[in-house]
């Protein structure tokens, strides 16, 4: 386990539309609660992505910033190097699509992604906006996923990734699955502060870097999860 | 106004009747239903009602209602003003406002950001006032860069005179296709939506950095210049400047604002209002005393009393609005926070994570509203001690008699107002 956990937030100037900072804050808090000191680096899109980070985060954004973000990440190469070193990554919404081979641009035109996940995305017919609930791949041993989605993307998963979950409520990838994972990368359409509603997902990312983590007081996290799942799941 | 064609006269009369009925039956304040009825009978009613008036459109993410009120108060120095004072800021509300003051030579209309192109096209307003753009209710509102682009298209090739806040890069970009612009350096506290150049996507170099302006020194906040590192887009030279408590007019004369409305955001709103007033021939010497008479706007900033407790009501609907409310709230007082996520609030509470609540550490914090658990977790992660309350009433009862600040988002605020009979 590293003496200090470094959290790298990629391009908050481009891809931080709505509460994406929440994922940074939740990771920091859950590491701190276990006595693990953290250091967070906000990487502007004009700066190089450091290669020595432990957990990387990338968030959602509008069409144009998404295209700019993809171009700059491809050119930079720092994230690729970090992933090869074994760093963990959570990619959310527009950031999730970017990680694939291709995604839909402003007019639906195909734009090259950074190619860290075997997925391809395009534009759907309708914007998916609302609460989402999904059952996580049993291999990961996580409780029901809960959150809010707001996107027009449709994502096809290739053989190189596994679906993160199967949707119970909401749209997700568009084929009954939501998100995907491969190695230490998790991608999801749960936008904004996805980890606030899914602390077990935060712990999974942390434990990939730190090893097994002791349980902590999850009172407020659990109260919010229970209330949201009660509100959206069929009785 | 006596020139209205018969059909338009009938449509606006029936609209007013519907509005009166709506009020009489207690269904609402009538400002939407009346306009809807009128528009149904005469789709061109808004254009006809707008003709032959000096019309100001006011749009922004935050401060629309207050600035509309400030401009209206100023222009009353010149004559009658038609206005949608209740915040009904779409075309039906505009029809109601103009129909209810048919003889008024001036009109000041608050306009929803998305509707600005349509309303400008219909009314051919002579003055458009644009203050700020920031993230707001993403589940139903347009993305803001897209919105600014629509403003550009709507303003291009029109004679409208735009009064715009040049300290907001996105507003500057949205306004800069207009034939004539008066730039007001009105400040920008929330900067998390303007790190990239709206023109080319390159990095914007700014005086301050990070965290919604909360960690900026006074000098950094005062220096509001910005420029793109990669293209030529930069802050235009302002004609009007807000400098702390003062506004400096285009002649270099300094005016102490001395508003009754609190906070930096309202000083910014007042600076813009003074620039609009001057465009219509009203100098600051005559406009300013009028601005100083405004004490509360649709319940905002008002103080209500309950069992020995004086509660000051602050509305905050999005991250930029919360920063403004924190600027007004008194650190020495306990504070009640109430958050809902109904349709008008946005059903997505993600924005709570964009607000830095650590400023509340050290004061008693009470949390209520329909989405209090979202806020509770947010505060717990920020290590801000708080007490959860089932209702606003319970939160008030927990606190000792004395002064209390209240910050609520849209429907939570309306619920609190309703508890006090909307008499505020």
TrEMBL record, chain A:
It comes from the Bacteria. GO terms for molecular function: carbon-nitrogen ligase activity on lipid II; glutaminase activity; transferase activity. Residues 7-198 form the CobB/CobQ-like glutamine amidotransferase domain. InterPro entries: Class_I_gatase-like, CobQ_GATase1, GATase_3, Lipid_II_synth_GatD. Pfam families: GATase_3. Signal peptide: none annotated. Its EC number is 6.3.5.13, 3.5.1.2. Keywords: Cell shape, Cell wall biogenesis/degradation, Glutamine amidotransferase, Hydrolase, Ligase, Peptidoglycan synthesis. HAMAP family: Lipid_II_synth_GatD (MF_02213). This is Lipid II isoglutaminyl synthase (glutamine-hydrolyzing) subunit GatD.
From TrEMBL, chain B:
The keyword Transport does not apply. Residues 61-170 form the Mur ligase central domain. It catalyses: beta-D-GlcNAc-(1->4)-Mur2Ac(oyl-L-Ala-gamma-D-Glu-L-Lys-D-Ala-D-Ala)-di-trans,octa-cis-undecaprenyl diphosphate + L-glutamine + ATP + H2O = beta-D-GlcNAc-(1->4)-Mur2Ac(oyl-L-Ala-D-isoglutaminyl-L-Lys-D-Ala-D-Ala)-di-trans,octa-cis-undecaprenyl diphosphate + L-glutamate + ADP + phosphate + H(+); beta-D-GlcNAc-(1->4)-Mur2Ac(oyl-L-Ala-gamma-D-O-P-Glu-L-Lys-D-Ala-D-Ala)-di-trans,octa-cis-undecaprenyl diphosphate + NH4(+) = beta-D-GlcNAc-(1->4)-Mur2Ac(oyl-L-Ala-D-isoglutaminyl-L-Lys-D-Ala-D-Ala)-di-trans,octa-cis-undecaprenyl diphosphate + phosphate + H(+); beta-D-GlcNAc-(1->4)-Mur2Ac(oyl-L-Ala-gamma-D-Glu-L-Lys-D-Ala-D-Ala)-di-trans,octa-cis-undecaprenyl diphosphate + ATP = beta-D-GlcNAc-(1->4)-Mur2Ac(oyl-L-Ala-gamma-D-O-P-Glu-L-Lys-D-Ala-D-Ala)-di-trans,octa-cis-undecaprenyl diphosphate + ADP. InterPro entries: Lipid_II_synth_MurT, Mur-like_cat_sf, Mur_ligase_cen, MurT_C. The active site is at 348. Its EC number is 6.3.5.13. Zn(2+) binds at residues 197, 200, 228, 231. It comes from the Bacteria. Residues 315-412 form the Lipid II isoglutaminyl synthase (glutamine-hydrolyzing) subunit MurT C-terminal domain. Pathway: Cell wall biogenesis; peptidoglycan biosynthesis. Keywords: ATP-binding, Cell shape, Cell wall biogenesis/degradation, Ligase, Metal-binding, Nucleotide-binding, Peptidoglycan synthesis, Zinc. The keyword Protease does not apply. Belongs to the MurCDEF family. MurT subfamily. Forms a heterodimer with GatD. The lipid II isoglutaminyl synthase complex catalyzes the formation of alpha-D-isoglutamine in the cell wall lipid II stem peptide. The MurT subunit catalyzes the ATP-dependent amidation of D-glutamate residue of lipid II, converting it to an isoglutamine residue. This is Lipid II isoglutaminyl synthase (glutamine-hydrolyzing) subunit MurT. It comes from Microbispora triticiradicis. The lineage of its organism: Bacteria, Bacillati, Actinomycetota, Actinomycetes, Streptosporangiales. The gene is murT.
């Amino acid at each position: 386990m590293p003496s200090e956990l470094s959290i790298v937030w990629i391009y908050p100037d481009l891809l931080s539309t709505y509460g994406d900072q929440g994922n940074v804050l939740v990771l920091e808090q859950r590491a701190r609660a276990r006595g693990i000191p953290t250091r967070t680096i906000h990487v502007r899109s004009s700066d190089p992505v450091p290669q020595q980070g432990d957990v990387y985060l990338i968030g959602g954004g509008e069409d144009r910033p998404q295209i700019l973000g993809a171009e700059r990440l491809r050119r930079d190469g720092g994230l690729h190097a970090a992933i090869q070193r074994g760093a963990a990554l959570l990619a959310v919404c527009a950031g999730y699509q970017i990680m694939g081979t291709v995604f839909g641009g402003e007019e639906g035109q195909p734009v090259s992604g950074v190619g860290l996940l075997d997925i391809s995305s395009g534009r759907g017919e309708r914007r998916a906006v609302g609460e989402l609930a999904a059952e996580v791949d049993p291999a990961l041993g996580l409780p029901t996923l809960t959150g809010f989605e707001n996107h027009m993307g449709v994502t096809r998963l290739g053989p190189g990734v596994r679906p993160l979950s199967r949707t119970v409520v909401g749209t997700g990838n568009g084929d009954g699955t939501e998100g995907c994972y491969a190695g230490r990368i998790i991608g999801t359409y749960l936008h904004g502060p996805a980890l606030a509603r899914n602390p077990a997902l935060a712990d999974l990312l942390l434990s990939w870097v730190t090893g097994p983590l002791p349980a902590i007081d999850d009172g407020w996290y659990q109260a919010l999860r229970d209330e949201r799942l009660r509100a959206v799941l069929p009785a | 106004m006596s020139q209205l064609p018969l059909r338009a006269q009938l449509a606006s009369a029936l609209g007013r009747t519907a509005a009166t009925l709506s009020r009489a039956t207690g269904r609402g304040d009538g400002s939407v239903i009346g306009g809807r009825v009128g528009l149904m009978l005469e789709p061109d009613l808004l254009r006809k009602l707008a003709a032959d008036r000096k019309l100001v459109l006011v749009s922004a993410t935050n401060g629309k209602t207050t600035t509309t009120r400030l401009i209206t108060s100023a222009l009353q120095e010149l004559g009658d003003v038609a206005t949608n004072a209740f915040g009904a800021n779409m075309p039906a509300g505009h029809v109601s406002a103009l129909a209810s003051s048919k003889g008024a030579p001036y009109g000041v209309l608050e306009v929803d950001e998305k509707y600005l192109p349509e309303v400008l096209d219909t009314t051919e307003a002579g003055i458009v006032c644009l203050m700020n753009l920031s993230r707001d209710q993403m589940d139903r509102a347009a993305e803001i860069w897209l919105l600014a682009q629509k403003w550009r298209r709507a303003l291009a090739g029109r004679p409208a005179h735009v009064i715009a806040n040049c300290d907001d890069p996105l507003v500057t970009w949205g306004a800069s296709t207009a034939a004539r612009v008066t730039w007001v350096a009105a400040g920008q506290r929330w900067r998390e939506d303007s790190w990239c150049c709206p023109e080319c996507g390159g990095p914007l170099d700014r005086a301050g950095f990070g965290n919604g302006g909360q960690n900026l020194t006074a000098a950094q906040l005062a220096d509001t210049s910005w420029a793109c590192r990669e293209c030529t887009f930069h802050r235009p030279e302002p004609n009007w400047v807000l400098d702390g408590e003062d506004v400096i007019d285009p002649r270099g004369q300094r005016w102490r604002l001395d508003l009754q409305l609190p906070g930096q955001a309202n000083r910014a709103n007042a600076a813009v209002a003074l620039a609009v007033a001057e465009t219509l021939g009203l100098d600051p010497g005559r406009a300013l005393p009028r601005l100083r008479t405004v004490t509360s706007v649709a319940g905002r900033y008002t103080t209500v009393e309950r069992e020995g407790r004086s509660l000051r009501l602050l509305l905050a609907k999005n991250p930029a609005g919360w920063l403004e409310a924190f600027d007004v709230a008194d650190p020495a007082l306990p504070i009640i926070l109430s958050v809902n996520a109904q349709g008008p609030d946005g059903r997505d509470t993600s924005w709570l994570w964009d607000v830095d609540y650590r400023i509340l550490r050290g004061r008693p914090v009470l949390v209520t509203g329909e989405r209090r658990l979202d806020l509770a977790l947010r505060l717990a992660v920020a290590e801000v001690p708080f007490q959860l309350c089932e209702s606003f009433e319970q939160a008030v009862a927990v606190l000792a008699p004395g002064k209390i600040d209240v910050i609520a988002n849209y429907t939570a605020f309306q619920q609190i107002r309703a508890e006090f009979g909307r008499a505020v």
